[in-house]
């Protein structure tokens, strides 16, 4: 299994316990992390890298709905994307590709320009899963830009499927981490775009996850969150039963607009389909995130 994180990119990472700087000690191959440890220079925490995959989380902190859903995704990772492709038109009245294209437009990828600091542009997907959004990003990004896509997920099974996609489809510049959305292992304002698709309602603390996404985004960048919400116009018994089966893990799946950081601006809430919302917002310069 090949590694997806170059040694030189360790400087992008931060300790999920205290946000201190991390240092690498271990074996590398071709300039890529292979086996070893990431050490925090401030709190002394250490984080293992196994088969090239940084594991930037504490197992005891994965609990509640997070643990339940991870077990499901780890159990059947290879079935997730095929089932999504099959069931989306039956449940949503539109194809999976059409649904994805609608929210990708909210990323405003066509507005990206080269970074004035000379570094690559960075895009973060929280809950990257098997990487179904990677082809959409590749098509929508302006040509000629130097872009890194960072993906974090709790499920080793889904990340394994994502790595297989990288090898199969040849996507370049993708870095994958085992990490928790509630404690993102990055410094403040690290990313030029941040998005999360299909997971926020299943997080044990969605308010904390939204605050973390806002923290790591550069001021003014679009942040986009998509997940389940029943359309007010979907009144049939069939729709309601199907929606309840889809959202068995939570009592009240809905757009968490009320949980956004108080300083969030340019808030747009849309109903993408019968069962899914799209929430986009930005953080202004120097806005506090709590």
Report on this structure:
With 290 residues, the chain is an alpha/beta fold. It folds into two domains: 1-52, no CATH class; 57-282, Vaccinia Virus protein VP39 (Rossmann fold, 3-Layer(aba) Sandwich). 27% of the residues lie in helices and 24% in strands. It contains seven helices and eleven strands. The protein has helices at 65-75, 77-92, 96-104, 134-140, 156-169, 206-216, 237-246; strands spanning 22-29, 32-40, 46-50, 53-56, 121-126, 147-153, 174-179, 193-197, 223-228, 265-271, 276-282. An eleven-stranded mixed β-sheet has the order 1-2-3-4-7-6-5-8-9-11-10, with helices on both faces. The model has no long low-confidence stretch (mean pLDDT 91).
From the structure above, extract its key features.
24% strand; Methyltransf_11; 7 helices; 290 residues; transferase; 2 domains; eleven-stranded mixed β-sheet; methyltransferase; single chain
> Which blocks of ≥5 consecutive residues have pLDDT under 50?
none
Proportion of residues in β-strands = 15-25%
Biggest beta sheet attributes: 11 strands, mixed
How many individual domains? 2
For the record, the CATH architecture of the largest domain stands as 3-Layer(aba) Sandwich
Distance between the termini: 38 Å
